[in-house]
Amino acid sequence: MIFLADLTTDEKAEVLQVNAEGELKQRLASFGLRKNSFVKIKLVTILKRTMEVEVGNSMIALRFEEAQKIKVKKI
Q1: Into how many domains does the chain fold?
Q2: Mapping DSSP to helix (H, G, I), strand (E, B) and coil, where does residue 68 land?
Q3: Per-residue DSSP letters for 4-64?
Q4: What is the b/e burial string over 2-23, where b = at least 16 CB atoms within 10 angstroms of the residue's CB?
Q5: Mean pLDDT across the stretch 11-38?
């Protein structure tokens, strides 16, 4: 098991667990980022501070600290 932050551009994964609480967990869920959802990494910034993630038909930007709270399985 790895974290979303470990993925690189064009890799796909299934979300296994979101280890966030409160407002962050609600925000991620509102974007469709929850257990059993599928994601694709579209862009990772050079300094690895943020990443652009495709979830369903949506594109979201995540900080690496947030992406480190999401356990995934590569597909």
Answers
A1: 1
A2: coil
A3: GGG--TT-EEEEEEE---HHHHHHHHHTT-STT-EEEEEEE-TTSSEEEEEETTEEEEEEH
A4: ebbbebeeebebebeebebeee
A5: 94
Range of the domain at 53: 2-74
Which CATH number do you get for residue 38? 2.30.30.90
- The amino acid that residue 45 corresponds to is T
Question: Residue 48: is its pLDDT beyond 90?
Answer: no
Output the CA torsion sign for 32, 36, 42, 47.
positive
SS3 state of residue 1: coil
The answer to whether residue 46 scores a pLDDT higher than 90 is no
Quick one: pLDDT at residue 47?
85
Q: Which two tokens stand for residue 10?
A: 């064009």
The bridge status of strand 2-3 relative to strand 70-74 is: antiparallel
